[in-house]
Design goal:
Blueprint: E1 7-11, H1 15-26, E2 29-34, E3 50-56, E4 61-65, H2 75-78, E5 81-84, E6 87-90, E7 96-100, H3 103-113, E8 118-124, E9 132-136, E10 142-147
Parallel strand pairs: 1-4, 7-10
Antiparallel strand pairs: 2-3, 3-4, 5-6, 8-9, 9-10
């Protein structure tokens, strides 16, 4: 049996922009279909929004616009994440994780993702990794970015 897992992200009208941003950050190929592509009348509210989107590359993501939920306010679907007294405090059900083999590789991803993001934990050495950072990007996705720990 061959199984794979792909994160499917839900957006409030910004899926297309998010897919383009993640393609800039990670590379790969974007595929997208709008509601109009699947039969909704062109010109109908939301017809131009993404019903199916995918980034296929070193990082694979799927994306979708929630019908009728156009908003640049990411809080209703994304929740919040903060650091308080050395602990991560969140109401999110998941974080998106990107792990690289070197600090240089991860720093490149971090510097791209941090554009317009809220930094929760700056990218720095941690007790378990030569590089660890956490941020919520401008689309409301919280990313854990780290270097794989050395195997001993």
């Amino acid at each position: 049996m061959t199984l794979t897992t792909t994160t499917h992200l839900n957006f409030r009208g910004t899926a297309s922009q998010a897919l383009d941003f993640y393609q800039e950050v990670f590379g790969g190929e974007v595929t997208r279909a709008t509601y109009a592509d699947t039969g909704m009348p062109v010109g109908a509210p939301g017809a131009d929004k993404v019903v199916f989107g995918q980034l296929d590359g070193p990082v694979r993501l799927m994306a979708y616009d929630i019908p009728g939920q156009d908003s640049t306010d990411v809080a209703p679907t994304a929740g919040t994440t903060t650091r308080e007294d050395g602990a991560t405090v969140t109401d999110r059900t998941f974080f998106q994780s990107v792990r690289g083999g070197t600090l240089e590789e991860i720093t490149t991803c971090w510097e791209a993702l941090v554009q317009g993001a809220e930094v929760i934990e700056p990218l720095a050495e941690s007790a378990w990794s030569p590089g660890f950072g956490m941020l919520t990007d401008r689309f409301g996705v919280t990313w854990v970015v780290d270097v794989a720990p050395a195997r001993g």
